[in-house]
Amino acid sequence: MKRILAIALTLPATALAETFDRPIPQPQTETAEFWFLVGSVALILSLVAVQVLVSRR
User: pTM of the full predicted structure?
Assistant: First the structure.
């Protein structure tokens, strides 16, 4: 009986929870843009290297 009473008392508490506020994305920093550039160049160079290795066969 005590368990049922405890459950009945805690259920309305979840209904009173505050609404979810979506997080606001932060602007991209210059450091992040630099590392994205480095990663992009590395990806392109690796794709070129794979193409050269495959074309030799």
Answer: 0.53
